[in-house]
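Issue: ligand-bound run for S-adenosylmethionine - logging full I/O for the record.

Environment: standard queue, default settings, no custom constraints.

Inputs:
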Amino acid sequence: MTDIEQLKERMKDLWALGDYPEVAKRFVPAAEALVAAAGIGPGDRVLDVAAGDGNVAVAAAATGAHVTASDFAPSLVAAGRERTSALGLDVRWDQADVEALPYADGTFDAVTSAFGLMFAPRPEVAAAEAFRVVRPGGVVGLAAWTPDGFTGQITELMSEYLPVPMGTAHPIDWGIEATVRRRLAPHCDGLAVTRGAITWEFPSIDDTLAWQEANFGALVAARRALGDRYAELRARFAELVAEWNRGDGGDVRLPAAYLIVVARRDR
Ligand SMILES: C[S@@+](CC[C@H](N)C(=O)[O-])C[C@H]1O[C@@H](n2cnc3c(N)ncnc32)[C@H](O)[C@@H]1O
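Outputs:
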């Protein structure tokens, strides 16, 4: 196994910790916004990569598109398959790395990823793969957390403490428009950029931390690995929650900004 393959095996384990499907429930509006921005509709052949348990797959399939979803974590593929089948949606699920997709060139009308491809350790390789499997004239649509929001800042914080990176050194670089334009420029003529935000809501700061410690896989991984140093991370996490909290009267409302980019593959 090469070094990068070994690294990805460890990354997979990290993403499988906690309860990602519980976390993903909060990201549904962003998945729906991505599907709308990418113009996905009936009959489109869509691939969602780093799909988690299928937020985008569900939203795309609901339009009447033919959807394939893939993720490198087997437990999330299983969770996604169960979810879409319980909803009666005909979604094909594959275990796959975004940097080595098991599909022929030009197979799909649209390739999407919400908060997924942004974590691939080699951004240029992941971008090239997405454009390889979309047909000429098809679209690649990506959603990524931006640095000016709670989730982006938490992603940055976690990268200081994790025993294995979640993805690149700075996944939120995918949320910086100029960086995304530069990364996608070799594959497309131009791209459309929109911005959105979801709000994480909790009854209190204590509830926020308890919920994150139960469900957020990166925090679970850090807690296991850090020993006494976990208290420092927890305190910094709590500081970020307090800094970003827009709730009044004890409740917590955390704005998590994201960028959506839709790029059409050169013909
Ligand atoms: C924050 S979750 C987003 C999941 C989903 N797209 C959503 O919107 O809920 C990140 C996902 O990326 C997946 N992932 C990270 N690196 C990957 C890679 N190299 N190949 C495939 N999946 C990857 C993880 O397993 C995880 O499911």
